[in-house]
What we know:
The structure holds 2 protein chains of 2 kinds. By secondary structure, chain A is of the alpha+beta class. Chain A has 9 helices and 10 strands. In chain A, a hairpin with a 5-residue loop joins strand 4 (139-141) and strand 5. The longest helix of chain A is centred in the last third of the chain and has 31 residues, at 272-302. Chain A is elongated. Chain B is mainly alpha-helical. Chain B has 14 helices and 2 strands, in the order αββααααααααααααα. The longest helix of chain B has 29 residues, at 142-170.
Amino acid sequence: MTLMTTHNGRGESGGVVGKAIRNVFARAEPGEVMRIQERAADSQPRMGFFTDTTVCIGCKACEVACKQWNQLPSDGIKFTGNSYDNTSHLSETTWRHVAFVEQMDRQGIHGKDRWLMMSDVCKHCDDAPCENACPTGALVYNEFGNVYVQPDICNGCGYCVTACPFGVLGRSEVDGHAHKCTLCFDRQTMGMEPACAKACPTDSIQFGPIEELRAKARKRVEELHARGETDAWLYGADETEEYSRLNAFFLLKDHPHAYNLPEQPRRAKKGMAMRYLFSLAATAALAAISAVAFMEGSRSQNA
Amino acid sequence: MPEEIVLEQIRRTQEKEGLRPHENARGVVVPKTTGQPVSEVQALTKRDGSGAPAYYDVPMLKPPVWKWEIANYFFLEGVSAGAFLLARLAERFGGGRYRDVTRAGTIVAAATFAPCPALLIKDLGDPKRFHYMLRVFKPGSPMNLGAWTLTGYGAFMSAAAFREWYRNAAGEPEGRLAKAADSTIGIASDAIGIPLAILLAGYTGVLLSTSNTPLWARNPWIGPLFGVSAMSTGAAATRLLLRSKHRNVTEKPLERVESVGRMAEAATLAGYLASAGTLAAPLTKGRYAAHLWGGVVGAGLVASTVAETVAKRYKKASPFLKLAGAALTLVGAYALKWAMVHAGPPSAKDPKANREMSRASR
Lengths: 303, 362
């Protein structure tokens, strides 16, 4: 028996038990949630995405499937002039976005010019700054280890929007709440893979237990290196000095900035305690000065 | 095969024109000859001015959604916290001499606090869910801690305000019950209200800096800057209220808080600008440069100092100049809060700032 809750097509959670657990663990670390869930139910490994951009053909089936399954509205028809990328970025209404990079001024590995195509998505960070920032506890780590915005709790404060180093979350102008990729939470609870992974014709988007995906990805990189494609590398598979691992990680072939990804994502919360101390000290110092001034004033009066 | 022949011809032409690129260790390719005219096709890969990789100058980050409601809230809650602190400290340390400071400070604190909840609620994307802010206690989120602090401060400040009003209307409390209630409220509003007010004064700066917006991200100076600004605006507003009743005897401590506060503001502002560097461009050079240099520095720091200094020498003009000095302090602080909040979106929308902030070397 698993502590599952019911979900409708919009990824909203029903069920008192699931809600209660999420409420209580609004502050829990991802590992904590998983350990407690494991004790209580069948062991559920952490699930994630591995996006192998070397086999992406830029068909945008993932964008379409995501919009279709999650009933997301259209973003309007606009031609950006940026190659085939007319979506530009992830947002509250776009949870999969395909980036196109044409590199025609390069003598490639095999002497060919090349295109880089990547299906971008919420990174579902192990230690997510958006979850840290959320004041209502709407953002939680669900039982699959993914970062999930509970749409019935978010009150649209917009703090998560500023916290994300990848610019994933946006606040909807229609309902005022923040939205992002749910990693098809509703599909996962029914034992299905996310819509984008299902639709991807080349299996560029792979879904499964994250440890298996990391192993697969490392093997793939070795394979590419053996072939002479030494510019292949994994973005987000390993912890960096500053940032946790990503549960949606990528195989890239160029610098992250070429894909509009941050070279070094940063945790907003780092150094927060020091900043609080600094702020309290400055205010308290002025308050102390005022107390002294009041004391001196009263003393001179009494003298 | 014919295609291979064509490709070989292209390669030879490019080698001849010296356009053969070299690779760095990561496999990132930079053309060896930059600045030479390149054909349309070869220029397709978007790079920024320095030749480093870029993505069509599409921003990496999302802009903050906060506007005038939050700018006004930052200013008002700062004045409220500062005025409350001064009112309480005047009573505790003033030996009975600063009753009018306490009264005026409490009035200012209550009056400036009153619009704050409405401003915060209005700013939300879904205002009817405003009470969800207190659904959990999550001190790791500055916004949640701020919501709890604001609520607690509101309660204790209101109790202090009620006590002040009661004393004003009915005089010193008589009878054991009234005296006990009076001293309890007094002690509580100091023991709990003062720490809450100290936290409230600067937490908004910590909130801004615990984000990824380049203008604010992880900058340790915004919290102290807002904190000292709260103290000096609290003093300035209290002085203005006192002066409007023609009292000029008991404002010396307030003047001192304001003048020390101005120096502290200058120092923390300088620290912020030094720490943010080029990331502060929307404030220093962009649309809000006038707010920063004219409002914050010009009016709030320079002009108000001049007014106060001149007031000391020319006794005749002194009352007007002192009023002007206090008013200028308030103008400067308002410009600061307004500019800090509104310069956030241009900062997040600037692809160069985004990339600079995300470099590993920073």
